[in-house]
Amino acid sequence: MILSVSRRTDIPNYYMEWFLERLKEEVVCIKNPYNPHQISKIPLRKEDIDCIVFWTKHPRGLIEHISELNEFMYYIHFTLSGYGKDIEPSLPDKRTVLIPQFLYLAEKLGKERMVWRYDPIMINGRYTVEYHKKAFKQIATALDGATNRVVISFLDLYRKMKKRENKNDPFREVTKEEIYELSTEFVNIAKQHHMTVMTCSEEISLDYLGIEHGCCIDKSKIEELVGYKLKAKKDNNQRVACGCMQSIDIGSYDTCPSGCIYCYATETKDHVENNRKRYDIHSELLCDSISITDKVTIRKVTSFKEL
Description:
An eight-stranded parallel beta sheet has the order 9-8-7-6-5-4-1-10. The protein has a three-stranded mixed beta sheet with strand order 2-3-11. It has helices spanning 11-14, 16-25, 60-64, 94-109, 129-142, 159-164, 176-192, 219-226, 269-276, and strands spanning 2-5, 27-32, 35-43, 51-56, 74-79, 114-121, 149-154, 196-199, 212-213, 248-249, 295-298. The longest helix is centred in the middle third of the chain and has 17 residues, at 176-192. Strand 5, helix 4 (94-109) and strand 6 (114-121) form a beta-alpha-beta unit. It contains nine helices and eleven strands. Helix 5 packs parallel to helix 7 (176-192).
């Protein structure tokens, strides 16, 4: 199986000890987001885990415990954008903290296991098209040689985001003309720094610019990393435009305290704070526990390795 760790919360930042405990105990539980009393219990035997895909904006926990992951193959989606504290209030300085972390991980793991994400791309009075061009160039220059792939996506105005954004300078949908202008500039910059650009869950075709529809949980990439063919199929639980292969996401919604205004995985700050009060590294559920009213089903999992 492929473990997604996690689209729903920043486990490498906040919950790495819990994740390592799950690997040690060889079990994790996941609540059904649509029916919280339905719980899947996932065996985590090492021989069944083909690859782990980490998602993070600040991988401090992963860096602290990196030696404890030596027995597993994994790669990292590391989001680095040009936004300030008004958009990403809990993140440390990119130049002095986050970019050095990216470079450190690339040196330890190799650039093939590092994916730079510049997303979501949002437009308002402060974060203009020209602003994004400049920010993208600065980050790409700093990451030259540390990755060969950058993933971009353009803002979807989630209901949850509208509650959090600055009403005096709201974001809007990026126009097709702006998408083409930014994408053209990003491709040119990326080429100068030995990177290819891919999109994430975008229906618009940018093939003529040399931008492919990307797969964040990428079958071909994982096959290259693990050294064998996989029999997994497309993940039908994701959006139609998503090309990711089947995976199991072990995160929980409303558990990330970073407070990024564009986050689709958190409802309110109060929800997050209440859930984090239940955090226990020994619990099989992230920021929760199993109750007597829950129905727990053991999910059968195995390696996707073609025999």
